[in-house]
Amino acid sequence: MRLFSAATLLFAACPVVWAQNATLVPGLIAALNAAGLTSLANITQGLNTTTTGGAILTQLQSGRSFLIFAPSNEALAAIPSNVSSNPEILNDIISYHIVQGNFSGVVTNYPNVTLGRTLLNDSRFVSLEGDQAQALAWANRSDGKFHILNQRLDPTIQNTTVFGNITVNVINHVLEIPGTFGAIVPQDSDALSGFQGVSKSVSIDFFNATSNSTANITLEVVLNNGLHGFTLFAANNTGLAAAQGALTGLGVNTPALDALLENHLINGSTVYSPNLVGGDRISAAGQTFSFSINSTGQYVTSGGTTALIVQPDVLLYNGVIHVIDRVLFNTDTNPSAASSAEVSALSSASVAATAEATPTGPIGFSATASLASATSTGTSSAAGARHAPPRTRHILQIAATMVGVLAGIVVIV
Ligand SMILES: *[C@@H]1O[C@H](CO)[C@@H](O)[C@H](O)[C@H]1NC(C)=O
Ligand SMILES: *[C@@H]1O[C@H](CO)[C@@H](O)[C@H](O)[C@H]1NC(C)=O
Ligand SMILES: *[C@@H]1O[C@H](CO)[C@@H](O)[C@H](O)[C@H]1NC(C)=O
Ligand SMILES: *[C@@H]1O[C@H](CO)[C@@H](O)[C@H](O)[C@H]1NC(C)=O
Ligand SMILES: *[C@@H]1O[C@H](CO)[C@@H](O)[C@H](O)[C@H]1NC(C)=O
Ligand SMILES: *[C@@H]1O[C@H](CO)[C@@H](O)[C@H](O)[C@H]1NC(C)=O
Ligand SMILES: *[C@@H]1O[C@H](CO)[C@@H](O)[C@H](O)[C@H]1NC(C)=O
Ligand SMILES: *[C@@H]1O[C@H](CO)[C@@H](O)[C@H](O)[C@H]1NC(C)=O
Ligand SMILES: *[C@@H]1O[C@H](CO)[C@@H](O)[C@H](O)[C@H]1NC(C)=O
Ligand SMILES: *[C@@H]1O[C@H](CO)[C@@H](O)[C@H](O)[C@H]1NC(C)=O
Ligand SMILES: *[C@@H]1O[C@H](CO)[C@@H](O)[C@H](O)[C@H]1NC(C)=O
Ligand SMILES: *[C@@H]1O[C@H](CO)[C@@H](O)[C@H](O)[C@H]1NC(C)=O
To answer: Which atom of ligand 3 is nearest to the CA of 46?
Structure first.
């Protein structure tokens, strides 16, 4: 697999000093207790015993807006004792329940998915570009409830209370932190068992920047822990089966197969569904991805193939998968386009990283808000016009990688 190359670029940490309000957390704890969330109140009381917990408290005391997905007492009682008795792990889990920003008045009619940036940024549990914190996705569904996505126990929001700038959504199950490709795909999406099989059988010459050496490893291993920030469009089993003949025709481990795989991947950028609008992206093979939304759904196009996104935002430890209904049959490459896309991503990376340090609302909100009436008006051209304006804010971009001079290999940092 020939991707672009990269070398490490370290951004100086940008400490942001917030005016701290020492009475805010005690007030929050009292509010949690008053709402019957006594177990979460107790855990909040103990946050100061770990570094992660201390960082959560610092954030909460800032007075900024947060959305807390607050597990009920029953939900917290179900946490295994080896986790509940381990404040390091417990506080990381709690950090995944706190989303940064103000979500009041967010329109989620279409495509219904809202994503926010949590406080989970422990490198043991998340490895996104620019050391960004992990995202959380939720959606309103036809049952009228808000479901947290990518969760085996399907938690839903039970009720909501507000404490100052902090909105507390009570949920009925503790949230699971997104895992690796190999761990998540079998749990989350039966539709990807075929693709997972492919990922185990395709081998890739992978340059590992940490060990400064190239190894022949499977695509599955590359996706599990080789990439730090990626977006993968993965065909579901039906789509893969339909392409079987054409794929077999490419043979195994050929340049054409490499190109085809790379044309399903955006390397270095984790692009969630609200940002799959309004502008093109460049694949790892240097080809253009374009996107559209109409009343029948959200689409991605590469080469001559347009695929429907059947399941957006399958969140992973180190990226995101969007499940599509067919293989994007594009075997063209443009290595210089792939490289220059990386260079341009890099130039805005520090800006993006700074912007992301203090998210104020949903990921990609400005793009999706305008889609609110897409389903009700129903005409694809009108919907297209409404979401055409360019994004004003990038959540994605690479902040930890830059393009180097090595050609013809994948690089990790
Ligand atoms: C600090 O937080 C408390 C509890 O929310 C609030 O009542 C108080 O007004 C805040 N003080 C300042 C200076 O923001
Ligand atoms: C409250 O938290 C402490 C640790 O901070 C724990 O030892 C105790 O069991 C918790 N109590 C309840 C009722 O959850
Ligand atoms: C944490 O805060 C509680 C009061 O909320 C206090 O009793 C305890 O000493 C603090 N622990 C640390 C390690 O600061
Ligand atoms: C927090 O709430 C206060 C009013 O209570 C408001 O003035 C302030 O703008 C809010 N801050 C944010 C970041 O929303
Ligand atoms: C807790 O125990 C379960 C089952 O024994 C195990 O799978 C899990 O990894 C443990 N978790 C931690 C944080 O030790
Ligand atoms: C989106 O939400 C609306 C309610 O606002 C619901 O009627 C519709 O079924 C939802 N769509 C999906 C795909 O869940
Ligand atoms: C919110 O839900 C929790 C958990 O189900 C429950 O304990 C609490 O009483 C509810 N609060 C309100 C105001 O309904
Ligand atoms: C990586 O290995 C090459 C030889 O394969 C060597 O020339 C280069 O200096 C090494 N780079 C680092 C950073 O060790
Ligand atoms: C990688 O190893 C597999 C067998 O493990 C082999 O079939 C394949 O040709 C190798 N690929 C490269 C690029 O060396
Ligand atoms: C890259 O090399 C490091 C150090 O040897 C190793 O820990 C890591 O697992 C390697 N990554 C991959 C994807 O093989
Ligand atoms: C929506 O776009 C897709 C892909 O271009 C197209 O196949 C479909 O017919 C369009 N649906 C409507 C209702 O325009
Ligand atoms: C793949 O997506 C298509 C389009 O939504 C759907 O008809 C098909 O059932 C899906 N296949 C699987 C295995 O989920």
So the answer is: 1
Length of the chain: 413
Closest Cα to residue 232, out of 100, 145, 322?
322
CA dist 225 → 128, 135, 219, 222 (Å) = 11, 18, 10, 6
CA–CA distance, 37 with 35 (Å, rounded to integer): 5
Coil, helix or strand for 307? Answer: strand
Residue nearest to atom 4 of ligand 2 (CA): 46
* Ranges of H-type helices in 232-348: 237-242, 244-250, 255-262, 335-347
Which residue lies with its CA nearest to atom 13 of ligand 2? Answer: 39
Per-residue pLDDT of the chain (413 residues; tens, 9 = 90+): 333 333 323 333 344 455 788 899 999 999 999 999 999 999 999 999 999 999 999 999 999 999 999 999 999 999 999 999 999 999 999 999 999 999 987 765 556 789 999 999 999 999 999 999 999 999 988 898 999 999 999 999 999 999 999 999 999 999 999 999 999 888 766 789 999 998 998 888 888 878 889 989 999 999 999 999 999 999 999 999 999 998 888 876 688 888 999 999 999 999 999 888 878 999 999 999 999 988 888 999 999 999 999 999 999 999 999 999 999 999 999 888 887 776 655 554 445 555 556 888 888 855 444 444 444 322 222 222 212 122 212 222 222 222 221 122 232 22
Query: Phi and psi of 182, rounded to 5°?
Result: -65, -30
Going by C-alpha positions, the residue among 316, 320, 323 that lies closest to residue 184 is 316
For the whole model, what pTM was predicted?
0.85
For residue 295 and ligand 11, the question of a CB distance below 6 A is answered with yes
Name 163's bridge partners: 166
In short, whether 49's Cβ falls inside 6 Å of ligand 3 is: yes
Query: Across the strands, what pairs with 140?
Result: 146
Closest residue CA from atom 14 of ligand 4: 65
Instruction: Say how many Å lie between the CA of residue 296 and the centre of ligand 11.
Output: 6
CA angle 154, 160, 161 (to 5 degrees): 145
> How many CA atoms lie within 13 Å of 71's alpha carbon, on the beta-carbon side?
25
